Amino acid sequence: MPSPTRATFVTTTYPLQPRDSIPGFVADLARHLVRDQNVAVRVLAPHHPGVPLQETIDGVHIERFQYALNPNRQCLAYGAGIPDNVRNNPRAKFQIPGFFASMAAAVWRSLADTDIIHAHWVEPAFIAAIANTFARKPLAITVHSLRPKPDHISRLALKWADRALFNSRFTMQQAHDLGYKSNGQVIYQGYDQDTFGKLPRTGHARAQLGIPHEAPLVTAIGRMVPFKGMEILAAAANDILATHPTAHLILAGDGPCRPEVLRIADASPHRNRIHLPGKMPRDRVAQTLADSDIFVMPSIIDSRGRTETLGVAALEAMASNVPVVASQVGGLTETITHNQTGLLVPPTNPPALAAAINQMLDDAPLRTRVATAARARAERDFAWPALAAQVAAVYRELTTTRHR
């Protein structure tokens, strides 16, 4: 076997423990590159209090850079995400210079043992490009999201990258509409096949929340940040639960919008059938999906113009054979085809959301048809082994071109 391609991931977030509640799509890609594509992956990610500075998980070597003098006061990364942490924690914004200086130093130290740099999100790509100025290693960027308004850092990061990998056609079109120039292509994010779609309907997740085994169960799982629209589903709860007097609703997750979601739920006459269990580790998410009858993604376009660029949670539900009701926004329209692999509804419209959920609850053949088609679509187009192969092909192309 030839020597592995040595890839360095540069990212602002990475799971702190296997199967924790932090979105795992960067880790899933790294794991499949190592396991299936003969790529040696080193991850450069921010440190977090209580977590080792270096460790190897699933064959992926992780180096976490410390960005504050006192590691126990680091608060810029993780949690609700950097943008929301800056808005909600005054100390976080003062850690930004140290954060990016430490990231640049980590990239610089890695260059001697790297064939290609793969940055996730535009800010790490910008920092990596600067640290890579003289080494000139190939640079790829995965664009998971973009700010709704043009900014200089995104423009330069996309221009400097040898290849921009957009997580959806929506994100790629957004870059075009913002006037950014890039050598771009779409490579979707996937779902964790080792976790989702593997579990039977045991009722264990229901039992943890006191939900009867046969009760209709509607579930939403995600960060409680504005564009996830959890308040919209909370506002639709009365209609759903009054129409289906044995049904239960799970609103799982945490974030700055949780107090408002809780306020709406507490005002409901059906409060005893609305469950807010907070953040869940990945294995509990998988079991909750396996025990659910419908999954809901009530995403919106928030006041800052942010929205869902793909919707990995919807992919996880689709792979778990759970029919999905989602808002017709962003990249969700690429994963879900209305009335074929799910139901799409107008965003920011609790009555329309409730009507679609009620329709799905009332129509068992529709649930079966949609769930079957959705699972087939997830397995065909969003499985990590095939997506990792596409990324590895980009690595081979860029490293071969650079070495000519």
Protein described:
The protein has helices spanning 25-36, 82-88, 90-93, 96-110, 122-131, 152-160, 169-177, 204-209, 230-243, 258-266, 282-290, 312-319, 332-335, 350-362, 364-381, 384-403; strands at 5-10, 39-46, 54-57, 60-65, 116-120, 139-143, 163-166, 184-186, 217-221, 248-252, 274-275, 294-297, 324-327, 343-345. The two termini are 22 Å apart. The longest helix is centred in the C-terminal third of the chain and has 20 residues, at 384-403. Helix 1 (25-36) packs across helix 16 (384-403), helix 9 (230-243) crosses helix 14 and helix 12 packs across helix 15. It is α/β, with parallel strands linked by helices and 404 residues long. Helix 12 (312-319) links the parallel strand 12 and strand 13 (324-327). The radius of gyration is 21 Å and the shape is globular. The strands form 2 sheets. Strands 3-4-2-1-5-6-7-8 form an 8-stranded mixed sheet, with helices on both faces. Strands 11-10-9-12-13-14 form a 6-stranded parallel sheet, sandwiched between helices. It is built from 16 helices and 14 strands.
User: H/E series, N to C?
Assistant: EHEEEHHHEHEHEHEHEHEHEHEHEHEHHH
Q: What structural class do you assign from the helix and strand content?
A: alpha/beta
First CA to last CA: what distance?
22 Å
Chain-averaged pLDDT: 96
Which band does the percent of strand residues land in? 15-25%
Global Rg: 21 Å
**Helix fraction by DSSP (H/I, runs of at least 4):** 40-55%
Number of DSSP helices?
Answer: 16
| Overall spatial form | globular
Uncertain parts: none
Sheet bearing the most strands, described?
8 strands, mixed
Task: Report the count of strand segments.
Answer: 14
The strands making up the biggest β-sheet line up spatially as 3-4-2-1-5-6-7-8
